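Our consortium's second objective concerns turning raw sequence data into structural hypotheses that experimental partners can test. To show how far this objective has progressed, the report includes one record in full. It was chosen at random from the queue rather than selected for favorable results. The single chain below, 288 residues long, was entered without modification.
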Amino acid sequence: MKGLLLTCLSTMILFACSTGEKKTGDSSEVANPSIVTAGGTLTEIVYTLGLGDRIIATDRTSTYPEKMQSLPSIGYRNQIKAEGILSLAPDIILAEEDYLSDDVLDQLKLMDLEVHFFKKPENPTETKTLVSELAALFEVPERGIEINEGIDKDLQILADYLADNEERPSAAFVMARGPETLFVASEKTFAETIFNLAGIRSSAQGFEDFVPLTPESLVTMSPEYLVLFDSGLESLGGIEGMARIQGIKETKAYQESQVLSFDGHYLSGLGPRVGQVALELAKAVRNK
């Protein structure tokens, strides 16, 4: 109990030194409220709504647009500390559900900071819902409608393309953090969503989430294409470095140089550009 009181006291002192006044917890009383975002998709949507100049700090997943990377970083999930956020004196904190720990949230609430949690989209419908929610929060509903109309337009272009290209190549998404840390994505992941949108058959079936990738599973799946994040491919030493992974050489994907990589947030964020990245992937696996 003594430790908790000391933590709360130090947090209150830090906040007082940072702002000189206590927040009311109501952003509607603040003109042009400053924003801290925790979640790359939230950051992208807020920026696309025309509110990028209000964002004063982001988390490590907020890599788009590139200028967001020059802002102070609050860290990533369990690394995020309340003191770091409070020192920035934000008016509003936007975070993905379950992104902040209970301890951090308790400290933020203690200071009456306005915190909003949002579900990370798992499909384009949820993307548009999130856009509408954020547009309503910041009272720019017209801009939200414009963004959602753009998403619908991109998805229609994708649908038209797939209607003229009905073949469904197979692919596997590999999450790589070096040659010793490899996982393959299956059901109930962003990869399943993007593959379905792009008209791709997932070679990884019969399990959920991400599971360790083994040489045996690679040979069994035998995907026509392998898809990775740019950072994951780099961690393996590029396409040449992938040859050191057991089982890779036996796949059609590697034998025919059909290894694709995309920016991590672009591929997995399911933000306003979801239709664009799905179309890019659809064309890449059809070489058109």
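The partners drew two points from this record. The radius of gyration is 22 Å. Confidence is low (pLDDT under 50) at residues 1-25. Both points have been shared with the crystallography group to help prioritize constructs.
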